Amino acid sequence: MANPSKLNHEPCAVVVNAALHWHGLLMDSAGAGTSAELLLQHEQWLSQDASHVVAWHRLCVLLPLPSQSQKSDLPAALASQVIAQAEAGLHSRRCALKTFARAGVGRSVGSLTWQRYHGPDWQTATGEQRTVILADGTQIQLNTDTAVKLVATPTERTLHLLHGELRIQTSEQAIQLVNAWASFTPLGTDFSLRQQQSHAQLSVSSGRVLIQHQTGAQSIVNAGQTQRLTAKQLIPVSALNRSDLAWQRGLLIAQNQRLDAFLTELGRYHQGYLRLHPSLEHLRVTGTFPANDSLRTLQLLCAILPIAQSGLGKWWVNIVPR
Q1: 190-224 burial, b for 16+ CB within 10 Å, e for fewer?
Q2: Residue 109 clears pLDDT 70, i.e. is over it
Q3: CA distance 294 to 299
């Protein structure tokens, strides 16, 4: 529940970025019907701090959602106080934009969200990888099924990871990366970020990256380290497993990995359905496989394990005992 003592706190840049991300998720899901799980996650984010409610209300004043999912589930009295305070500063659209600027965003929220709905600047399909080189030499490598949006002003550039996984090679503080829960500032570095539904994972190959979480927590991740984060917290730093970065060379590396876990990872690159017979889940896989040729990888698995495949081409593959 939000703390009433924080009702006079302005949303920081990370909170505003999180509000923008939630607005995009709810807008994207509006046509097909927003799931109860997504609404619950959004309500939990709103209840974490009063600044979340302020940022959310201000954004929805500028760009209302087609549904009423932007309403807070906070107790009515508290929500009314928060929203009343937000409305006090919203006598006009210009006032609202200035308020967001004071929150440290440094750009027009309306403009940013408008660009967000015109689709990502770069994206990859399932099984596809792509490298983008910016004018200053910054390299952005997108893994399978990834989408990013670049928002640039005369003073800063922010890359939004909408979903998927990417690698950034850049000079110090040349670009900032954000996801739904945090911002990532490179301090002269080569790093990657993978976004999953329940958590994200930052891996630093060289240099350092500063993480600023929406809760206010901060962390510096050094070369050779990795750190996971969720919507609620930063998980302690651990040693980097280089196998996690093999995708950057178009590979999947397994080291005594369970077959079910390996096929889950391979499924990110496979255009179709992979079904594993339950009796085979415990089998172990060790080896190096092509990430971008899932059918070849399946053939190699059938050659080294007591398994076979059947089905309807690549679109429906059953992995069964041999």
Answers
A1: bbbbbbeeeebbbbbbebbbbbbbbbeeebebeee
A2: no
A3: 9
Phi and psi (nearest 5°) for 90?
A: -120, 50
Whether the predicted pLDDT of 225 surpasses 50: yes
Residue 68 has pLDDT above 60, yes or no: no
Query: Is the separation of the CB atoms in 45 and 56 below 8 Å?
Result: no
For residue 164, pLDDT over 80 is answered with yes
Q: Look at strands 157-170 and 189-195 and give their pairing.
A: antiparallel
C-beta separation of 200 from 235 below 8 A = no
Distance of CA 159 to the CA centre of its chain: 11
Name the pairing type of β-strands 273-276 and 316-321. Answer: parallel
Distance CA 239, CA 246 (A): 16
The pLDDT value recorded for residue 113 is 46
Enclosing H/E stretch for 46: helix 36-48
